[in-house]
Amino acid sequence: MTPIPYNPLPYQTNHRRKSYNLRNQIGKTLHYDPAYTKLTYPMGDVPISKGVCTDVIIRALRDQNIDLQALVHQDMSQNFSVYPKRWGLTQPDTNIDHRRVPNLMTYFTRQGWAVQDTNYQAGDIVTWELKGNRPHIGIVSDRKIGDRPLIIHNIGSGTRENDILYRYTITRHYRLPVR
């Protein structure tokens, strides 16, 4: 597994840019739509007007020149056995694999991006378990209410920036290296 090459940019500047790029999705991604969609590869995306929680992450990182569709597919192609088998697939699928929270969790962990602290910084990625054992994912904003950072995510009504960090059971916390 080849790590992504990184350019030395100041951490805070990079993560403020991520938050700004995320906010560009607010008002554009208006619907939650989990339908299986045939995508181009690489750099495939569903229309900006719709998506799921993972699409918020995919689009934000694509703005940072990180193509999760290609990266997850490449890793799954070489290491399929370590990825969740919840969907009954027998091989990777470039249309959907990167749009599934458990697959992103596996990929981020394999990259060494999991952190154990509760010092949530702008640009960090957080996963939760919602009622009914449903996974969710979002990105920490650079805005706060008191000492709680807001989260940019799509939980059903399009991309929003909300105070939900502690509303659900947090399952993982990731911090990508500075690009």
What does this 3D model show about the protein?
- The chain is globular.
- It is built from four helices and seven strands; from the N terminus they run αββαααβββββ.
- Residues 1-13 have low confidence and may be disordered.
- 35% of the residues are buried.
- The protein has 179 residues and is of the alpha+beta class.
Beta content: 15-25%
Order of helices and strands: HEEHHHEEEEE
What topology, given as strand order, has the largest sheet? 6-5-4-3-7
Give a count of the beta strands, DSSP E runs of length 2 or more.
7
Globally, the shape reads globular
What's the helical proportion of residues?
A: 25-40%
Rounded mean pLDDT score:
89
Global Rg: 15 Å
Low-confidence stretches: 1-13
User: From the helix content, strand content and strand pairing, which structural class follows?
Assistant: alpha+beta
Q: What is the CA–CA distance across the termini?
A: 18 Å
**Oligomerization:** single chain
Main sheet specs: 5 strands, antiparallel
Number of helices: 4
